[in-house]
Amino acid sequence: MNPVRVGICGLGTVGSGTYAVLTRNAAEIAARVGAEITVSQIGARRDNPNCDIGNTPVSRDVFAVAENPDIDIVVELIGGTTVAKELVLKAIANGKHVVTANKALIAEHGNEIFAAAAEQGVTVAFEAAVAGGIPIIKALREGLAGNKIQWLAGIINGTGNFILSEMREKGRDFNDVLAEAQALGYAEADPTFDVEGIDAAHKLVILASLAFGIPLQFDKVYTEGISRIAQEDVTYAEQLGYRIKHLGIARDTEQGIELRVHPTLIPEKRLIANVNGVMNAVLVQSDAVGPTLYYGAGAGSEPTASAVVADVVDVARTLTAQPEHRVPYLSFHSGSLSSHPVLPISEVETAYYLRMSALDKPGVLSRVAQILSDDGISIEALIQKEPPEGANLVPMIILTNRTIEGRLSAAVSRIEGLEGIVGEVTRIRVESLAG
Amino acid sequence: MNPVRVGICGLGTVGSGTYAVLTRNAAEIAARVGAEITVSQIGARRDNPNCDIGNTPVSRDVFAVAENPDIDIVVELIGGTTVAKELVLKAIANGKHVVTANKALIAEHGNEIFAAAAEQGVTVAFEAAVAGGIPIIKALREGLAGNKIQWLAGIINGTGNFILSEMREKGRDFNDVLAEAQALGYAEADPTFDVEGIDAAHKLVILASLAFGIPLQFDKVYTEGISRIAQEDVTYAEQLGYRIKHLGIARDTEQGIELRVHPTLIPEKRLIANVNGVMNAVLVQSDAVGPTLYYGAGAGSEPTASAVVADVVDVARTLTAQPEHRVPYLSFHSGSLSSHPVLPISEVETAYYLRMSALDKPGVLSRVAQILSDDGISIEALIQKEPPEGANLVPMIILTNRTIEGRLSAAVSRIEGLEGIVGEVTRIRVESLAG
Q: The domain containing residue B175 runs over which residues?
């Protein structure tokens, strides 16, 4: 076969990793594809001093790559959703296949991009957009293609997992670990995207679409970050036999699809509860195979490049295939997408960890229990400690059974109104993640 | 697209599961493929009372399925390597694509089968042959296609993992758990294939070929079972911070490829050390992405069917693709296979756990240490216990550093010849499984 000609747009962390991997592993990759993969052009506004690109032609105008008639595959690694979107649409319009690592672009504009690509009969591949180097998109679109997927739960933001892991392993506070993560380069100067769950929400929307055959619906995700998790919550969770992880959860229920990102207590025995540091993992529950889990590096230069190059290989292997004989962008063919609604968080059913400060007086616990009971919520476990020396507030921790979030919220409001309860009730959702 | 017509040969555990999944999930699968998948014929010597196949035509002669002009894909689920091989070759000769779950067939006759398939331009897919429902073959052939794969280590036999898990969790003996596994149907009446590692060796040969681009070489695998693991080894391993797992390990070294199945001590903190019961997992170390892990059910009716159906979907999605635009059978194109040799076990480098019975006399330990030291082997950890009341033999447990197996074997022979050492030295290999 003729060489397959790639144009890389963006020469930052992932772009330079992609160039390095394509170059270093060129022989293995050619043996796998049955053709050489050559980087014919790079589009980058500036050079990257950490990336030796030899004599590869460079354009300062990334759009020149999308216009270059000698390029088969445009690899979009510039990030953001403005220029990147224009670039991808231009590449598609010029009949080029596209590989991208851009989760925000796919989550927010994927429906439009895939429609344009379908019209032109080209591929848009995005394995690197979710969980970095873990081939989770391939697993969902292809490896599990015989299954009805029931739910999935993923640790899909490494920064958040690093922070929670450090809080548990070393007893440190959120702000302390966040500062270290920023110093180590795991977290951005503005950590909002990672810590408040927006990055995870982008990824979750993509996973849910592939799993359930629904259109991408970023605006429907319920998103809650980890910035309000206190060191004591990590400790109490451990005493109860749980770990706190920041999960993206998507579940197909009769009423609709749950799409939610939030801190979650999960039983410590689950394999995914033992995924620590910056590593990612996605647990998928399906009707035929049962649970499967995919673990690996969710970010970083070469881990992300690994996924980008896998997509390049995929596209190259099927370069001349007819469009109807390719794997559909969102796993299901566009004419077969489901209109099953996404549920509002108030209608989601889950269990809860509640932590509150109670006055050290008789009767407070029984009033709390009464409120929960009135709403049909039962208590599965309870921790009540002696007040620290000289204090008159006791921490009270309750694990509830599964209930509808709206009902729990109403009960929590009434608990917060009790005379013996001081301040807000901290609530963290609990998932068993059992098949 | 026209319906894709499948013939299922074999209606046992996996065959009936495959029929059930294809039928139950027909709508999802059609939406993913863009065409219906229909089971046009079943070849089975007898009915399966647990499988309602409706009006599907049945042939008592499985070869009739391979001859049926109205069938696109022959699914071989009869097992064994005699009739199955003949069936697969006949289907290929008739221009049909083949999907099989048969690890022995692929491991022992894959080179011949793939050559025949290449000549006819048809696909032979075998995701279900390794680790049941885990899409590990897809991960190696496609998901990690940008990487040089450095090594992989897998828990790829559920029976063995169940036995070792029970030994650790409940302090039970090997024979006791094996009897239970047989009663539960996890282990065959003749457990040799599972317990002595032959099943794992079949799977390892396939994984190594996909990872390193070498031909299938079943006769070169070093295979050691778990039947000689004593309860006390499990306990001592735990005291040292390890778990014993029956692993298939393949490693690419400068000298050659390591291919070995044996019980292995691995640090308890590794995610794969926490894969328990009948579950499987494969850990893959690659140069770009680093470690990735794939976890799920490695056997059973519908978990295995999940992989069979994924292959059917893959074949259906590319039914009219040109052969050069399909994923190569063994990941690398056949003209590019490597002739890197497989290393004999005596040349493999690893660390060791040694357990021996020593007379409770001064100087025995120092003589053992001297022998190891003379061979350049150092002691990383040691457990020496008081002899039980009334006994004059003490157990002595040594963890060594990494060394060449041949050197270790020579040292062990000399240790066994020492006057103060009684009986044989138990040796179990130790792997850190760190990147």
A: 136-297
Q: Give me the phi and psi of B222, to 5 degrees please.
A: -80, 130
Question: What are the structure tokens assigned to B370, written together?
Answer: 């001297």
Question: Does residue B176 have a pLDDT over 80?
Answer: yes
Same domain, B259 and B353: no
Compute the distance between CA of residue A339 and CA of residue A359 in angstroms, rounded to an integer.
Answer: 49
pLDDT score, position A318? 85
Contacts of A388 (CB under 8 A, 6+ apart): none
**Percentage of chain B with pLDDT > 70?**
100
CATH code, domain carrying B251: 3.30.360.10
Of A127, A291, A321, the CB nearest to B318: A321
Q: Is B90 in the active site?
A: no
Q: If you count them, how many residues does chain A have?
A: 435
Statement: residue B62 has pLDDT above 90: yes
Residue appearing with tokens 């002669």: B61
Query: A274 and A158 in one domain?
Result: yes
| B252 within a domain of the structure (yes/no) | yes
Place of tokens 């681009």: B213
CA A295 to chain centre: 13
What letter would DSSP give residue A34?
T
- Confidence (pLDDT) at B386: 80
Q: What is the pLDDT of residue A127?
A: 98
Positions of chain A with pLDDT under 70: none
User: For the residues B136-144, what does the mean pLDDT come to?
Assistant: 97
Task: Inspect the interface and report whether the beta carbons of A146 and B312 lie closer than 8 Å.
Answer: yes
Residues in a beta bridge with A422: A357
Q: In chain B, what residues touch A32 (CB-CB under 8 Å)?
A: 141, 145, 328, 331-333
3-state DSSP assignment of residue B354 = strand
Rounded to a whole number of angstroms, the distance from the CA of A193 to the nearest CA of chain B is 23
Contact A155, A284 (CB under 8 A): no
**Cβ-contact B236, B280 below 8 angstroms:** no
**Overall domain count for chain A:** 3
Kindly report the length of chain B.
Answer: 435
What is the nearest CA distance from A146 to chain B, expressed in angstroms? 5
